[in-house]
From TrEMBL, chain A:
SUPFAM superfamilies: Periplasmic binding protein-like II (SSF53850). It comes from the Bacteria. This is Spermidine/putrescine transport system substrate-binding protein. Pfam families: SBP_bac_8. Keywords: Signal. It comes from Sedimentitalea nanhaiensis. Transmembrane segments: none annotated. The keyword Signal applies.
Automatic annotation (TrEMBL), chain B:
Keywords: Cell membrane, Membrane, Transmembrane, Transmembrane helix, Transport. One of its GO terms (biological process) is transmembrane transport. This is Spermidine/putrescine transport system permease protein. InterPro entries: MetI-like, MetI-like_sf. Pfam families: BPD_transp_1. Residues 65-272 form the ABC transmembrane type-1 domain. CDD domains: TM_PBP2. It comes from the Bacteria.
Length: 358, 285
């Protein structure tokens, strides 16, 4: 009670001083569940100064976001940022989000095609549950001087890089290997039997590949350490990871694999029991402004779905992006379709068996 | 007067009861119910034993548990073998300030968190780490050696993490052993080994057992050390539980795993107590 009173007073004061009473809505505390780098300190300060709302950031990842929201039935947070493919399944299964009121979103600020694709992928029973924010890809991060021969996911299993390879034991690895082995796992999403068959082949390949692996990385910083020290020369990771390292060591960079980089879009979704919807919508409309989006791109290294924000992006980042993605590699990006509920169980068994194999 | 005493009794009992019921009994009942649910469709659940069926049906899970239990037993034994002489020295040979200083040294690593201690080991053992560099500098090896990401590294981490929990009970029980008894043993013609076997170990038994139980349970329930030091082959049972809950959204199976861990580890502790002829009352009292 004391807290909300305080926030209210401070908020009103700021709003008055900025002459922004037109907003009308009372200041709220926005509890944001997001990824590292998506809500940089400078953006939060600007937002708090302009709207009077306060922002409380919790950094997380896809799985933890869903697990946290599931534990509380969608409470504890006012705005979450899961990937677009991980919304429809958990929503159908656990009902942890509430529909987005599209009238309250300034859709002109979004890149049209990306907004349309995300809306389609996050629709459950005719209601839209997500709008796009940040996008990127995962593929190969290589020390090109030592592992230049790696062109595709399965090349990580080659003798040239034995003992100097690292990837995650998570679903992107399964999907990447499946594409690289000439199969299309996305086409089999709706057919559990066909999907199981694909996953069995991937499982065999990953077990065969295991002696090549130094360790399965867990967090981004762990992988950065491994690549920087030279203990690992070829890995499967996000594009930003590669570009960050490229700034320190020109040999290391992100390479789009021959089978196609895997494209993801992180979204905005409203948790079912969120209490600060006004602040959530204000935040979405605020951070999608091109100049604010550019700040987020600078902090996370990742591009956003904001229309016109790339004009503000730094030339270095643009150069790295163009070096990693020739036009044909962009066309070859495999965008994740929504994951149907229950698919994780099939993948889970595969991952457990790979981990246990000798 | 009597009434006041009763009131005091209940007042003292309340925190304990609240603790037990709110934080232990209720969550466990909830977990038990959860573990008995089976997902039959999108958002639909039925009561069944299917999750326990999965545990026994998939050899992988049983093997992982056995591996975790065996490694934990081994870690307990190694900890005991290292901690016993250390405790004996602290309790019986060292005197005054030396004694407190040595005891403090055992305690110092626990002033930082487990995560930091584990990172410390990673810095020492990794390919570009301290040991590898030292060996190369001394000319003992030609290229970098990787000492991280294997079972031995994991064992080192587990033993290091649990050392204190073995030393403390051992020092306490050994301190209560009268020096005169040991001298009497030698006076009666006992050798060093027979004094150790007939007098010191039997006296220290409660400390050994309680220390071993604590270390075993800590190792079995450890998540951080196996994951970070064990690398790609480190499948640990707690890791399975974590991934069922967080990565697979399969809370039902995770809850069943949690219960199996509780039941099986209790059985192991109970079995060991029976085998060694100890009881929990003797150890804790």
């Amino acid at each position: 009670m004391k807290n909300s009173l305080m926030n209210g007073t401070v908020g009103t004061g700021v709003a008055l001083s900025l002459g922004l009473l037109a907003h009308g809505a009372a200041a709220e505390n926005l509890r944001l569940l997001t990824w590292g780098g998506y809500a940089p300190e400078n953006v939060i300060e600007m937002f708090e100064a302009e709207t009077g709302h306060t922002v409380e950031v919790t950094k997380s990842n896809n799985e933890e976001m869903i697990a946290k929201l599931r534990a509380t039935g969608g409470g504890g947070f006012d705005l979450a940022q899961p990937s677009q493919d991980r919304i429809a399944g958990p929503q159908a299964e656990f009902g942890i989000y509430k529909p987005i009121d599209l009238d309250r979103i300034d859709s002109a600020q979004f890149i049209g095609s990306m907004l349309a694709a995300t809306k389609a992928n996050t629709t459950v029973d005719g209601e839209v549950y997500g709008v796009p924010h940040v996008w990127g890809t995962s593929g190969l991060v290589l020390d090109t001087a030592k592992a230049g021969m790696v062109k595709d996911y399965t090349d990580l299993c080659g003798a040239d890089t034995a003992g100097k390879v690292s990837y995650r034991l998570k679903r992107p690895t399964l999907i990447g290997f499946a594409f690289s082995m000439g199969m299309d796992p996305f086409a089999a999403y709706g057919d559990p039997a066909a999907y199981t068959e694909i996953m069995e082949q991937v499982e065999a390949k990953l077990i065969e590949c295991k002696p090549n692996v130094k360790t399965y990385w867990g967090g981004g910083d762990e992988l950065m350490g491994l690549l920087r020290s030279g203990e690992v020369v070829a890995s499967m990771a996000w594009d930003t990871g590669g570009w960050k390292l490229n700034a320190d060591n020109a040999d290391i960079t992100f390479v789009a694999p021959a089978a196609g980089a895997l494209g993801w879009i992180d979204t905005f979704a409203l948790p079912a029991k969120g209490k600060a919807d006004d602040a959530a919508y204000d935040w979405i409309n605020f951070v999608m402004r091109p100049e604010v989006s550019a700040l987020i791109t600078e902090s996370s290294g990742q591009f956003t779905a904001s229309q016109g924000a790339d004009e503000f992006a730094s030339d270095e980042l643009k150069a790295r992006f163009q070096a990693s993605f020739p036009p044909e590699a962009i066309d070859n990006i495999k965008w994740y379709p929504p994951v149907p509920a229950g698919l994780e169980a099939i993948e889970g068994g595969v991952l457990d068996r790979v981990k246990a194999a000798n | 007067m009597r009434n006041q005493a009763r009131l005091g009794f209940y007042l003292l009992l309340t925190p304990l009861l609240l603790w037990l019921i709110l934080l232990i009994v209720i969550p466990h009942i909830d977990m038990a119910l959860l573990s008995l649910r089976e997902r039959v469709g999108v958002g639909k659940y039925a009561t069944s034993m299917a999750n326990y069926g999965t545990f026994f049906g998939e050899p992988l899970y049983m093997w992982t548990f056995l591996r975790t239990a065996m490694m934990s037993v081994l870690a307990t034994l190694i900890t005991l073998i290292i901690a016993f002489p250390v405790s004996y020295y602290i309790a019986k040979m060292a005197r005054g300030r030396t004694q407190s200083a040595l005891f403090l040294l055992c305690l110092v690593p626990f002033w930082v968190s487990e995560l930091v201690r584990t990172f410390g080991w990673m810095i020492l053992l990794r390919e570009t780490g301290l040991f590898s560099t030292l060996l190369q500098w001394a000319g003992l090896v030609d290229g970098p050696v990787e000492m991280l990401y294997n079972d031995a590294a994991m064992m080192v981490g587990l033993v290091y993490t649990s050392m204190l929990f073995m030393v403390v009970p051992l020092v306490t029980t050994l301190e209560s052993l009268d020096d005169a008894v040991i001298e009497a043993g030698y006076d009666l013609g006992g050798s060093g080994f027979s004094v150790l076997r007939e007098i010191v170990i039997p006296h220290a038994m409660p400390g050994i057992v309680s220390g071993s139980i604590v270390v075993f349970m800590l190792s079995l329930g450890n998540y951080l050390t196996p994951t970070m030091l064990g690398g790609k082959d480190s499948l640990w049972f707690t890791e399975l539980i974590y991934s069922q809950f967080i990565v697979r959204f399969n809370w039902e199976l995770g809850a069943a795993f949690g219960f199996m861990l509780l039941i099986l580890s209790s059985v192991i502790v109970w079995g060991t107590l029976r085998l060694t002829g100890q009881t929990l009352e003797k150890t804790m009292g």
